[in-house]
Structure prediction request, 906 residues.
Amino acid sequence: MKAVGGYGGGVASPGSVSSVSKAAAATAEAEEDLVVEDVGRGAMGDAEAEVANVDHAEEEEELEEEELELGLTLGAAKRGKATPAMWGPCCRILTAKDFPPLASLASPRSPSASSVSSSSGTNLGGGGTGTGVAGTKRAAESISPDVGSSPHPPSQVVVGWPPIRAFRMNSLFNHFKDNAPEVDAAVAVKKAIVPSRAGNDSQHQGSRGKVMRRSFFVKVKMDGDPIGRKVDLDAHHSYEALADALELMFHKPTKASALAVSVVVWMMADGAKISNLLDGSSGFALTYEDKDGDWMLVGDVPWGMFLETVKRLRIMRTSDANGLSKSVHFGKHQDFYRQRNDRKHPAYGLQPE
Amino acid sequence: MVGGFRWAAMFPDEVWEHVFSFLPADADRNAAALVCRAWYRIERRSRWRVFVGNCYAVEPAAAVRRFPEVRAAAIKGKPHFADFNLVPSDWGGGAEAWVEAMVEGWPHLEELRLKRMVVSDDCLELIARCFKNFKVLSLVSCEGFSTAGLAAIAANCRNLRELDLHENEVEDNCLHWMSHFPESFASLVTLNIACLEERLVGLLHRVPQLVDLGTGKFAAQHHPELFSKLESAIAGCKNLKSLSGFWEAGPTYLPAIYSVCEGLTSLNLSYATIQGPELIKLISWCKNLQRLWVMDLIEDDGLIAVAASCKLLQELRVFPSDPYGAAQPISLTEHGLVAISAGCPMLHSVLYFCRQMTNAALLTVAKNCPNFTCFRLCIMEPHTPDYITRQPLDAGFSAIVESCKHLRRLSLSGLLTDLVFKSIGASANCLEMLSVAFAGDGDAGLHYILSGCKNLRKLEIRDCPFGDKPLLDNAAKLETMRSLWMSSCSVTLGACRQLARKMPLLNVEVINERKRGLPLELQPDNCPVEKLYIYRTVAGPRSDTPSCVWILR
Prediction:
């Protein structure tokens, strides 16, 4: 086939800058250390580190290659391993899934079990249990050898993917949360009728006086900082905006121990900024306490769901956060846990090294 | 030229109006309007239905002025990817400007359909008060209103025939809004809402002529009296053709609708987490089903049963019950899709979420269903190859576009190289809407699409390595399309600036949600663009952009 003029082989034109963002480590200065992991895997070439769209997105293929070492330009590390299937840059918030040792949750169950109903206690009335969420199964999947058609590598969390309307996602989520058969009808309707679309709600419900919600000011406390603050979640439409705000709020140098795991990494708009926030290495995780009193890592769920359940925030050291992820609740909260090993799964279309 | 087109005056205007009323498509009427001034005048005065695919493509006042006799209007706002949270919440798409212009210029409006727009309660109240003969309200994927606004509609629109509210973000501050409907509501034929089931039963008794019913959540099964009330109420709706809702319906509720199953042509169970066996039982009653929306809980076995009993099926949508793969894998694979394609000869529209696919299966589907008009396949893991051969799915999708000559809508997924775009560009001559994610190798992919696909109207792309060159090389194509969305690709600000300068009839919107760094005007040309939305317009740049949106000129 005749090469399309100027389009060459499968390489994006060198002039095009792909926003490969660097996953810089959370800095020691980092106020709240919201480190967004670099997901930039743009077309080849000398893409500078740029800000890509920061949302609660996560690219599995990124995990494949990154070393998760703070302070390193993960983008650089990645570029060397560019894969034939290129995708555009996205950014990613690392959350519970990225914590390594949670393989302890692996269960010996065979991943190629057919869809026998597995319950994790979240069925709503009715006989069988449909889509109970069983976190342990996912760990098992990754451990078992890749068997042809069987286990489906779990989807990673990328903003807007899979392409399901926010409304539908919210009703799935509400279904999982509703594990009590005796659910108050009015409450159920409220949940059903007023799911908040990620990032869309504050605009209008705010003006209406937020009949259905609590106050949007939530407390934020950062480990090592004796002074707690409050942040107005209503003022933000996304995790990145919230991170910006928290950053400003807690902007002062703090020391933190270097850890190999960054939690939420923000990509910066220009190189100069990166150093301010992300130099050195420190491990802080942004976590929140939800309605049930559990501490979750921020970024797991769409923004709207987050707003519905968040009670307060805590910027905790990742050394503590490691313990946190073990307490992640599946089913009820629909956490998207993933194993490190998953990244090496051949089904992801990447060539094993 | 005085003598030209004298023949237009041979017939009185009414005759031409009557002739135009046979033109099936707006495009045909548009063409007629270009023939001569007389036809332009006659056509515009007799057009009573308008469709505005992009609310910013034209000024509301201009549209109202041009077509003064409109009775039915449909308007769309936000880009499609707004459904998946890719568009900032304050991007725009407000309905006020349109509603105000319509109230002013179309007092006889009977029908309004809005999609992906921000509709306030004030808008709903205006609609309820000002359109005396209002019959149809459809709000899909909208937000910004509450049940108080709906109460105004229910109370004032005495001739309401159709109320379709699905997948909206509605604030529920007026729980009894449905009681505002009149006691005897003989005109209501379509009701698609989310509501309390007790109210539903009461309402059903008032509207036995209902043809289309959408319900909300059914509580768990411990309301036996409610069950029998519901059963008799639904049985009383002898004309029921379309049923949807049943959120979280326990299987014990399903028998309540068995009585109407045979008459159903449309069934939407995609919010109901009913398991395979119950689903199969229910669907086996629905022999006349033309449209079926379900969750993947139906599994391959269920789809095989559907293929056996629903021979009239035209549209199938299978949604994922577990999008993030946190639960046990569901046994819904390519086999279900192949079974449906083999068993349902009238199938033309498919939306299918699954986790695995093969080229062979797609080839089979393509061979079985050359009449597809809409094929949307979503393999939930990005970059998933053919799980047996480990090859990209280029061959499979190419087979689809080559076989389905009437394909109007296509969504791709899985591991794909530029080759698939070559096929699409070359073969998809009827394609109007294409959705691409995590695909392609480089610029050539986008170039194939933009230089081919002669009927392309909407193109939406995310996370693909497409850059500036194909965009600039195919700038003229963009004016023939309604819109282009690109996010997380490799487009730079410089290219957008060039495009905006070159094409005055396009609005080039750059969306950058990061608040830090320089404002966009000061950014250099090589600054990457996170999100780009380009659409043709005769209205110039809009004035309601939020701070994260820049319209380049």
The mean pLDDT of chain B is 90. Residues 224-235 of chain B form the longest helix (12 residues). The CA atoms of residues 257 and 297 of chain B lie 20 Å apart. The two ends of chain B are 39 Å apart (CA to CA).
